[in-house]
Amino acid sequence: MMFSRKKQLRSRELLKFNISHRLNLLYVALFVPRLLYFILWILRPFYERNENWLNKTWRYGFLTLGGGVMHPAEMRAYRAGIKAVIDNFKTALAAERNNEPLAWVEWILNAEIIEAFDIASFNTESLNIFGNTMGSEYPPALIAEAESQGVPVENCSAVKLSVGSYFLKQIPEPTLIIAASHPCDSSISIYQILEYLTGVPTFSYDAPYWKDENSYDYFTMNTWDLIGFLEKQLDKKIDWVKLREVLERVNEINFYLREVCEMNRAVPCPGTMISLALTWVIREVAVRSPLAVSMAKGVYEATKYRFDKGVGVVKNERVRVLMWFPPIGFFTYIFKWMEHEFGAVVVADFIGHISTIHINTETPETMVHDLSRSQLHLGMGRQCHGPVEFIVDELEKMLEDYSADCVFFMGHNGCKHGWAALKIIKDFLKKKGMPALYLNLDIMDKRHTSEQEIKKEITDFFRSHGWA
């Protein structure tokens, strides 16, 4: 039963708890990944199946690290990503404390431009993921707070959580906000609410409908407008040298992750999708950090080691799964559970797959143009700012490229554009003769569909097709 945390949560409690306890502990433990792997395996019976009052503050972290079945090489890579998140949270809280500029950057955008102004940035949706480290009831409590204040229940829980976090004083106050018009109406309406609540200047990107040069040029004009907006609000000029430095790091990140995506096409699959999902989270929160490059490189090296040897991430790969629409994983990570229980490997998904372009850093003009184009190729954004063909065409290509045996449609409650496309997706998969599981869930809010219910549906699906 959901309970109210309104009177019990202290100001910034969730962020401070993550910095001082859970994330720091994980960061230290990851210096000895083989020992941590052994501990996770030994403790697995106490946390793998369900959350309880004894394990709720460490279960989520253990599952994120593979629940005792992830190779230490991947865990070693995560160390850098965790440190990047810790640094981002500390910087954001310090900016608020010292009355320095702090930019909120919506989850569908990255904070590269903010680096060029040398101010702090914060992803307001961070507690979708990191609120779980105190127990999976915390994100739903923040969502419930937003609903109690009048935010429509049918809106996406990802952005409802941002409103609840603001009301309950769990995220730092912004100086300005950078928002977007894609991928959905929920995001647009919620950021209008946040603009009203905070009263701070807000810049909103306007995503084009198509993917052609005129569209990219239009989005590039948006980025030039953003630079002008920031120069006016911050009373300082953009530092092109700093922007070049961060974009060269972004190019490195994109290179390593594109290579991982390519290697995952191999049979058996050498990579685990949980790594790409987590690197997506890290780039959303801390793409500016050199540590994000370290994490991407570590994931690449672990995957390439297996690829070169011709071995899979699981010893006996039985089924290759393509996850379409946002992958479940914010209150429970099922990737490694599926690998361990069924030999079922998620070879690609809607968000973790990388198709961003290389950014030319020669001149300010090339940087702004290519950064703008790259933003439109981030996961979720590239499929959901135009016609339904963007969704279905990519689905068809993924099925061919990744030799998928089945598709999971992750029917996230807030993705109205996903549900609107469902009949078209069903007809397409039926024509292809592709087995599909259609799940009705909420990837952040366990009140909608519990972890046990999700696992039962997946188990029944695999059994019905002879994979379990």
Describe the 3D structure.
With 468 residues, the chain is α/β, with parallel strands linked by helices. The protein has a domain of 224 residues: Rossmann fold, CATH 3.40.50.11900. It has 19 helices and eight strands. The strands form two sheets. It has a four-stranded parallel beta sheet with strand order 2-1-3-4, with helices on both faces. Helix 9 links the parallel strand 3 and strand 4. The radius of gyration is 21 Å and the shape is globular.
Which key phrases capture this entry?
about 475 residues; alpha/beta; Rossmann fold; four-stranded parallel beta sheet; about 55% helix
Topology:
Blueprint: H1 13-29, H2 33-43, H3 59-64, H4 72-97, E1 102-105, H5 112-115, E2 120-122, H6 127-130, H7 138-148, H8 157-167, E3 176-179, H9 185-198, E4 202-204, H10 213-234, H11 240-263, H12 273-286, H13 290-309, E5 319-324, H14 335-342, E6 344-349, H15 364-375, H16 389-401, E7 406-412, H17 416-420, H18 422-432, E8 436-441, H19 451-464
Parallel strand pairs: 1-2, 1-3, 3-4, 5-6, 5-7, 7-8
Quickly count the helices.
19
The helix/strand series, from N terminus to C terminus, equals HHHHEHEHHHEHEHHHHEHEHHEHHEH
| Principal-axes shape call | globular
Number of strands: 8
State the end-to-end CA separation.
33 Å
